[in-house]
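Q: What would this chain look like folded?
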Amino acid sequence: MISPHSGSAEEHHEATNTASFPPAPELLTAQEVADFLRVSRGTVLEWSRRGLLRCVVLRVGRVRAVRRWRRVDVEALISPTPQSQQPTRLSR
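A: My prediction, written as structure tokens:
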């Protein structure tokens, strides 16, 4: 026997569509990154231009683009490097 749907259409949609997308990474603005790292906004932009800090470029409209930084990438910048990945010092 088929039971009638007891919830709303929205509840049904949520119940059947729970695993559609993984959680999005938290994206930060240049100022938020600068505040977190205690540097200037210009330093954050310069580090991104040099490739020291990865950013995501989001297109807004046809021409404009904005940069955002993933929190995990910013936190990785200040996390201690494991001993095996530290550069080796050469003695002279």
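The mean pLDDT is 79.
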